[in-house]
Amino acid sequence: MASRYSQSSVVTTVVSNYFDDCASSHEDVDLVSQRRDSETASSSHGNASGSTTTSLAYLPHNKVLSELRHEAFEACVPTGPSDNGLVSKWRPKERMKTGCVSLVLCLNISVDPPDVIKISPCARMECWIDPFSMAPQKALETIGKTLSSQYDRWQPRARYKYQLDPTVEEVKKLCNTCRKSAKTERVLFHYNGHGVPKPTANGEIWLFNRSYTQYIPLPISDLDSWLKTPSIYVFDCSAAGMIVNAFNELIDWGASGSSRDCILLAACEAHETLPQSAEFPADVFTSCLTTPIKMALRWFCKRSLLRESVDESLIDKIPGRQNDRKTLLGELNWIFTAVTDTIAWNVLPHDLFQRLFRQDLLVASLFRNFLLAERIMRSANCSPISQPMLPPTHQHHMWDAWDMAAEICLAQLPSLIEDPTAEFLPSPFFSEQLTAFEVWLDHGSEDKKPPEQLPIVLQVLLSQCHRFRALVLLGRFLDMGPWAVDLALSVGIFPYVLKLLQTTTPELRQILVFIWTKILALDKSCQVDLVKDGGHTYFIRFLDSMEAYPEQRAMAAFVLAIIVDGHRKGQEACVEAGLIHVCLKHLQGSSTNDSQADPLFLQWLCLCMGKLWEDFTEAQILGLQADAPAIYATLLSEPQPEVRACAVFALGTLLDMVGDSCRDGAAGDDEYDDDEKARAEISIVRSLLTVVSDGSPLVRAEVAVALARFAFGHNKHLNSGSRWRVSASSPLANSGIMHGSPLSDDSSHHSDSGILNDGVSNGVVNHSRAKPLDNAMYSQCVLAMCTLAKDPSARIASLGRRVLSIIGIEQVVAKPMRTTSGSVRPGEPTTASLSPNLAGLARSSSWFDMNGGHLPLTFRTPPVSPPRPSYLTGMRRVCSLEFRPHLINSPDSGLADPLLGSVGSSGASERSLLPQSTIYNWSCGYFSKPLLTASDDSEEMIARREEREKFALEHIAKCQHSSVSKLNNNNQIASWDTKFETGTKTTLLHPFSPIVIAADENERIRIWNYEEAIPLNSFDNHDYPEKGITKLCLVNELDDSLLLAASGDGNIRIWKDYNRKNKQKLVTAFSSIQGHKPGVRSLNAVVDWQQQSGYLYASGEISSIMLWDLDREQLVNSIPSSSDCSISALAASQVHGGQFAAGFVDASVRLYDVRTPEMLVCEMRPHMQNVERVVGIGYQPGLDSAKIVSASQAGDIQFLDTRNHRDAYLTINAHRGSLTALAIHRHAPIIASGSAKQLIKVFSLEGEQLGTIRYLHTFMGQKISSVSCLTFHPYQVLLAAGAVDGCVTIYADDNCQAR
Description:
alpha+beta; four-stranded antiparallel beta sheet; disordered N terminus
């Protein structure tokens, strides 16, 4: 079946305004599937015109058990969004700030240093001021103030101090003052050495003496000792690399324990001189760092085609403000920031990018501008350097994008200056970069180079005109997987999308919710930021809005669930904002309005509430007051297992977890008294008991966890199991709950007669203040726990045992002896055979009686009158640890579980040992996966299915139209000794591979390739085999088939990868038969699977036929069998969904159709001569649903047409009183019967005997044993026969062998 969470709706809704074509393509797919369904429907009624169309009716189009939950339920332990570890690396370790800036200018205007020979004309401008245009001292002060104001634009809140042509003492005082003022913040030290000699080889910079008659060196080590850390140095002088080299010797940057946070920016290498060309300012490095737009445009203008039309002086007149993106200057600055950020992001390691470009605003600005300095100065053969070192970026292709944007802006400049009212045309830079990002999204993947436009997308979020498109593309990127979310977070997306939650723009809501879903699916730690900024209210409003699609509101519920997950402030904020009312309102609405009932939405409403209530008493009380248990109880019958499991989780979190002794002290009890709480708990537990035997392990696991919470809270009452007596006539003893029947609420009225509670345990009076609940409820709970402890899923059985251990019941489970003796059934616990002797002990060993002898148990509280020990083989009783604390650590205390050792200890440590729910973490995984695109393997799956359909149709036609030739001993093509000690119980031929599957009485499954004669796999169906496997079926045989193994006790287990050695995985498991007849020891379950409808039919020693929908994993009907006898054979039609035939022990045959109101179509008694059980039954090949074949143990085979109720139209007396097996080919006109007398007979549908296969004497004179099972290949005339001696032989007719 199609996946429940249709991806089309998410695409079309989240990205609706942008990708209209997505919706139409999905509609096309739906139309195709509808057309195909209608073709199938029309062809399945009556005779269709063409053989192909007719044949299509034989091929089912549905697929079950292929959801996310079936990947590996048994093995996997899901993890939810992480709140620590690798993913939080994107967060800057701590935000830094440059608090103080010290500027040291050594210009000594009008005096050139001795080591510099200047050219003419020479670079003169300092801070865009000509120092010779005014008096030297005034020029010096003006330059100092200007530099200070240029820095101030990048970090307005810093304190600025400068020294002009200073002495060493003045610099020392300046540095000490700055460090003292900045405290732990960063200090910037800017040194301009254009009026002093180059730094020395020892790394000394030059200053002046007081009278300016000497240059005084300042060792870099002194400077470092004054400024300490954190610091950043800018050295604008020739040979600045000398200083960097000296720092490198002084500080060991690579030392692991180094705490030095010291950054260096230097104008050139150690051997280089600053450019003197008049086209540059003298302080070209400083100009790049502090006035990048002016510097970049002037440099570009000289190299551009615009140099003729744009005068350089116009650059100083560019209109607008740098921080206003709607002006020309603001847009240029915005583009420059985007370009330099992008270059840095693409060339730097991510942790270095974080440190330099995201931690400190001033450092980030300086490094962006440093990239420009490198580009400009390298054109003058000068290489600026930094520590940490950056790779070369001057030739990065993003500079071309900057040049183009600059050219477009400059081209408008003359007209804008002429007419100040004219509006400038925004640059196409951002829309072009978004298009480039979109192209990457169409073709990129995790394995390819990341999209270089990511920092630009972040910048675009600042602009209203591009914001929606940028968010949609960002959403598509984040959907590619957790790696993409991590990349986006490390580029710095988080503060932007957090701030956007303050906007009220309606069209952004859906995509913002999607983006936050993706972020929180990776990193839960963002919950703190959301609550701090009040972001939770945004999602509550969205959750409550009716315009949004349910899938999107499910995402909002997911975000809110993360916000409240283990975060008390989040829980309190959401309760205050009315989240409980909103969620319960929509859950109530879903039960009345079908269009609202989207499964994903319901699932997350449940999880959101469960997480809100978890360990938060005030919220639990609000939930109980709002009648939440009743609202959630209705969800327990929803068709989606995920919804049912999440509803159980939510109900479980409402159960009181406070221990009995301190329950009355719980917060909020004043407003919600004990009686109301008890009523609510009874209501919740009753609801839980209805799904103890749900078809989905997902649901049952949550029931086990919820019952563990209940058991923990009511330990003392449940622990006194020995004080309850269940009389032999009580419905509790025989209700079959242990075999999985749903518990009815009306059993509580038996509590007075059947259950006594004297309030005393081992002579110790129970002083608990809290009122115990109804005793019948406690006994039902223990029965439910025992049911879970026997669950066919090993994971749930283990949970069930842990729950039992909480209330002091241990299981003594030993793997039974595999034996072939007749006295005890193979694979059954030996205690089971003693159960009839225990009938008189009902009052004293009620647990054992209620378990029907199937579950050996140990009690930690001894009964008041212990029964004689000789009756209780396999049981142990130990005193309750509450009364024997010295035994807790003793080796012979018989503790089966770590939980048992903690019963008397403090509540907190006990609670940590309770089984934990996994549904929340498991459900979170859905949002980590891509939601907007279909999985890549779908095309491959479709191709494989089409290939199999073609194969099936060809072979169906051959089967129908070719006459079957003889089948006898000469036709044997393979023989396999399975080595089954107890013989082959059932076999199955794979439709598309030369594989035969066999199973035995001990529930061992073996798989063999009969062409190559090699074993493929062998495994146990489960660890404690009891009844043998009675049926093997393939589920989804046209796709990746699953192996369904039905045990004699009605337990169903479905396996994937069953033919890969030791790679088999359990997909699902459940008990298909519930509530067997009183006094029945063995169920003898009969089961059949119908792919057309997705139904599994199961019956046995019960008075009804259970109808399971495997897509819903739910019991959808219990059909009365209309007979006092039990069913011995069951066959579902493989062509007509909903139709099946049943053969009974009294030799009667009944046909059913679940689509009709009365279900029973007809009843016949064809085997009247010798009334013995029906051994085999099945529909005849073809589309006629009225014709069936039935065989009884007496040996007669009856051909029936249900349109003639009275008599069989053909009878074959195949064997004399020993028929053991019947096989009917799905498409060829052939049947086969097997006998206990080592004989197989093959007949045509007209009754003609086509052959006899005898098990011949071997050369040693031994006879091979009797036939135990027969099965035909679905699409070829191949017959597999299993024998009691464990041998499987395969026969092919002559035509098949020839082919």
